[in-house]
């Protein structure tokens, strides 16, 4: 088995045409903090996270995922990963080197099997962060990122082979087959998931809140602000996490969650969950039904950034 050198999820970077509107939403409504911003680029931190930022917004003509970033423990691990990927024929965007983003560090970027830009980095300076207080309904950290894939089996195989991601659980349907793979890089149930979709795109980005009370307060705050809710509040079976899904101003699905399972990786065996059973999608029974409307919203637009590295 390939040694796992990825340690954790760092951030997800989004490019959008209406940058000002997106920035106002993520800072004024969603609860992130803008730091290290420049003209047309903002780095948004979660107050409870040591990561320099968990979302980067960039002004662009086309809506796209700029990149998904993961951490590694050391520069030597970064070099090992870059060498392993190159030897396997994976297209690198550039060789490992010093990063010019907040916190610095050492890293490189590559294209995955469907053309998403992925960054691996080490030695990024930690951000001064704080404990989120009781009742404070803002994100503690970026929990996970879910991508749509036109070839979910191939995408799962890519991340397993090249980056030693492990399968935690599979979501399936009796008629449609296997629909989502929950993948982990540490003991969190999933840092990334791969959903079957019509095209590669962002399915959703999920943000962890302090606890169930803060999660419900955050859900209510979004509803009072008039943010479009597409699914929730409820609690999934796979991962056992709570969920409330909303749309950002550009139609990206984003989630408030909490209490994602932490696994004993030595003893965990992946499960197969049939989402035609209502308790699989929502143990509580409080969310609206998972239907074609919800699924269609999460398909998102075709990503315009495939096999095109972001300029920054």
From TrEMBL:
It holds the Pfam family Glyoxalase. Residues 8-123, 141-259 form the VOC domain. It comes from the Bacteria. CDD domains: BphC5-RrK37_N_like. PROSITE patterns: VOC. This is Oxidoreductase. It comes from Goekera deserti.
């Amino acid at each position: 088995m390939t040694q796992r050198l990825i340690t954790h999820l760092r951030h997800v970077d989004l490019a959008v045409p209406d940058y000002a509107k997106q920035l106002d939403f993520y800072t004024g409504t969603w609860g992130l903090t803008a730091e290290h911003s420049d003209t047309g680029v903002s780095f948004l931190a979660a107050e409870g996270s040591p990561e320099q930022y968990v979302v980067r917004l960039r002004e662009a003509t086309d809506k796209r995922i700029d990149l998904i970033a993961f951490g590694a423990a050391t520069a030597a691990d970064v070099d090992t990963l870059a060498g392993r990927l190159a030897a396997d024929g994976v297209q690198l965007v550039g060789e490992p080197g010093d990063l010019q983003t907040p916190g610095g560090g050492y890293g490189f970027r590559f294209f995955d099997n469907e053309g998403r830009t992925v960054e691996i980095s080490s030695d990024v300076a930690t951000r001064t962060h704080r404990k989120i207080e009781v009742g404070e309904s803002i994100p503690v950290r970026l929990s996970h990122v879910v991508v749509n894939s036109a070839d979910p089996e191939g995408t799962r195989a890519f991340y397993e082979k090249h980056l030693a991601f492990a399968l935690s659980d599979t979501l399936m349907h009796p008629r449609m087959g296997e629909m989502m793979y929950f993948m982990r890089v540490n003991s969190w149930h999933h840092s990334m998931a791969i959903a079957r979709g019509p095209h590669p795109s962002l399915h959703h980005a999920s943000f962890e809140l302090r606890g169930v009370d803060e999660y419900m307060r955050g859900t209510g705050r979004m509803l009072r602000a008039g943010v479009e809710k597409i699914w929730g509040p409820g609690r999934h079976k796979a991962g056992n996490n709570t969920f409330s899904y909303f749309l950002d101003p550009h139609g990206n699905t984003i989630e408030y969650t909490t209490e994602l399972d932490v696994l004993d990786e030595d003893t965990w065996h992946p499960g197969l969950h049939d989402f035609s059973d209502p308790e699989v999608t929502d143990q509580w029974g409080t969310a609206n039904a998972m239907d074609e409307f919800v699924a269609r919203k999460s398909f998102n637009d075709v990503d315009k950034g495939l096999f095109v590295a972001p300029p920054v």
